Amino acid sequence: MAQLRIALAQTNPTVGDLTANADRLVAWTRDAAERGAHLVVFTEMFLTGYPVEDLVLRTSFVDASIRTLEEVARRLEREGLGDLPVVAGYVDRAGLAPRVGQPKGAPLDAAALLHKGEVVTRTAKHHLPNYGVFDEYRYFVRGDRLPIFRLHGVDVAIAVCEDLWQEGGPVSVVGQAGAGLLVAPNASPYEKEKEDIRLELCARRAREAGCALVYVNQIGGQDELVFDGDSLVVGADGELVARAAQFREELLVVDLDLPVADAEPGTSAYDPGDGSTITVDRMVLSGEPVAPYTPAPARIAERLDLHAEVYSALVLGVRDYVAKNGFQSVILGLSGGIDSALTATIASDAIGPSRVHVALMPSRYSSEHSLADAEELVRRQGITSQVVPIADIVSAYEKEVQLSGLAAENLQARVRGMILMGLSNEYGHLVLTTGNKSELATGYSTLYGDSAGGFAPIKDVPKTMVWDLARWRNAHSAPHFLLQTDRPIPENSIVKEPSAELRPDQRDTDSLPPYEVLDRLLDDYVEKDMGSQELIAAGHDPALVTRVIRLVDLAEYKRRQYPPGPKITPKNFGRDRRLPITNRWRETTG
Ligand SMILES: Nc1ncnc2c1ncn2[C@@H]1O[C@H](COP(=O)(O)OP(=O)(O)OC[C@H]2O[C@@H]([n+]3cccc(C(=O)O)c3)[C@H](O)[C@@H]2O)[C@@H](O)[C@H]1O
Ligand SMILES: Nc1ncnc2c1ncn2[C@@H]1O[C@H](COP(=O)(O)OP(=O)(O)OP(=O)(O)O)[C@@H](O)[C@H]1O
Ligand SMILES: NC(=O)CC[C@H](N)C(=O)O
């Protein structure tokens, strides 16, 4: 057996900022060198960030990615780090045999090995995910190689993200080819409880390949996606050896005892049994095992529970959206209700309470307790508030344009939206939109009113979970939350009955079923895609099924105009669920 110390660079790239990502690669490689690592593994498409969407269709972007890779290899050498091999993801271009219909030189979701100032080998993802939030048939052609490089006597194979998730392809030939270690750069977005699936998957692949597996995932927010890290190492028996934190950057360094290899370098073709051919390229960086040393104890970071991980995802999603889009501050309307209270708290935890601004905008229908509850939250969190009564603005409008009923109710929400956008224009705050997933599903929000804004932190959180998260946050904190206040959310905002307060004594239950009932139905219809007969068979009230399906289907136009927000469920309103707006299909008639 031979020892190797591997550094897993679980870090946070920025999409499109190739220079900053390259700087980060060099800085983290330096850290890894200082910690005595023999190999550093970065994440999928680390140099470009992930996902880059249609940027890969730009020749200039792909050229820049390839150039940056070559430059960073030379820079590592210049800065005295060239002896430490680095595996990192980037975008490349196919030279040969692109898929039928794709022009020659189509983009590749690639990974390379850098050593001594050179790009030693390049490979690319074979299985292209094309479901859920992924669109990779649109962007990439598949790779068909499995590079294996000998490092201090150990044969190390490289495969990219989705190649672990599918049968066949490069990962399925690792066993036949006989590698001692498989390293996998990933960009795997968060959804609740996904890390259990990842560990199981990595354990299975390690056992199949008969070698240890290093799984490195990025962290950070990118528009509607949040990456949670959760990088891990499993042994050839599938047992967990080391695991990094969730939602935080970490250079995880792990010592492994791995089999010494003796296969000859060269190229050979393997049949993964899925109709493709995988070319295995073997090369030698160094044949000699390292001198024996005392391994450092492996770290296995503690797992977060469901509410801790969802809340952390929302905090990271907001923090990175604000930072990566160049905002210094945010603003939102604080009503005294639970949605805006939770949104304000997430914002305070993400960017610090001194950068969170709220407008309290009572109308003629606002209850006294609403204002009092909003003021209490402001006091507890130390955020900046401003009271802007809207009754006179609404009256002035109504003097010129007569509105009644729902139109008049919506006017209040629109006046508030206009005030928030005005304050955003004046002071440069990002407007946070406060709607939850149950409201988005049913269209229970006013277009250009409370749905106005730039980023919607809780849009993928069902209302029942909004309450759970508020209770959880009042009982827990974490070092990476920037708000250090006990019980930041007034209890009254959590326990009171929800109301839009657009007319006297209005209650959400006037228009919607109780949220416990609604959320169960929405979960089955939206996330599980059940048809109306299945929903009824599952025990949902038939009249309610008809009514709720109608609400959901009709609200597609509103969702399309809603701001983006962090995905936390297996199916968010966004990239996960793409329906036509103009659409006569009705589940109930099908
Ligand atoms: N297919 C389509 N494509 C594009 N636009 C379409 C459209 N169908 C209607 N529209 C437009 O949408 C308008 C109707 O939408 P909209 O103006 O939003 O109004 P609407 O959906 O009729 O009313 C808003 C609903 O949200 C509730 N609400 C409001 C505010 C806050 C809360 C809360 O508790 O959070 C709840 C309120 O009680 C009411 O039930 C139509 O007048 C039309 O202009
Ligand atoms: N009086 C108010 N002052 C400031 N903002 C308000 C006020 N009323 C409503 N808003 C804004 O409009 C959003 C929708 O409010 P509304 O009260 O209608 O619905 P909600 O879903 O019950 O939200 P919340 O639980 O935050 O009250 C609020 O989250 C808030 O951002
Ligand atoms: N970037 C990828 O290939 C990600 C796909 C993979 N199934 C995941 O979510 O982890």
From TrEMBL:
Could you list this entry's UniProt keywords, alphabetically sorted. Answer: ATP-binding, Ligase, NAD, Nucleotide-binding
Q: Where does L-glutamine bind?
A: Y131, S188, K194
Residues annotated for deamido-NAD(+) binding in this entry: N410, E439, K558
> Which EC class, in a word?
ligase
Q: What EC number is given for this enzyme?
A: 6.3.5.1
Q: Does the keyword Methyltransferase apply?
A: no
Q: What reaction does this catalyse?
A: deamido-NAD(+) + L-glutamine + ATP + H2O = L-glutamate + AMP + diphosphate + NAD(+) + H(+)
Where ATP is bound, by residue? G333, L334, S335, G336, G337, I338, D339, S340, T434
Q: Which InterPro entries match?
A: C-N_Hydrolase, C-N_Hydrolase_sf, Gln-dep_NAD_synthase, NAD/GMP_synthase, NAD_synthase, Nitrilase/CN_hydratase_CS, Rossmann-like_a/b/a_fold
Pathway(s) per entry:
Cofactor biosynthesis; NAD(+) biosynthesis; NAD(+) from deamido-NAD(+) (L-Gln route): step 1/1
Q: Report the superkingdom from the record.
A: Bacteria
Example GO biological process term? NAD+ biosynthetic process
What are the residue boundaries of the CN hydrolase domain, all occurrences included? 4-258
Q: Which GO terms describe its molecular function?
A: ATP binding; glutaminase activity; NAD+ synthase (glutamine-hydrolyzing) activity; NAD+ synthase activity; nitrilase activity
Output the Gene Ontology cellular-component terms: cytoplasm
Q: What does the record list as coiled-coil region(s)?
A: none
The record's active-site residues are E44 (proton acceptor), E44 (proton acceptor), K125 (for glutaminase activity), C161 (nucleophile)
In the record, the note on similarity to other proteins reads: Belongs to the NAD synthetase family.
Role of this protein: Catalyzes the ATP-dependent amidation of deamido-NAD to form NAD. Uses L-glutamine as a nitrogen source.
Database matches in HAMAP family: NadE_glutamine_dep
Name of this chain's protein: Glutamine-dependent NAD(+) synthetase
Q: Which source organism?
A: Nonomuraea cypriaca
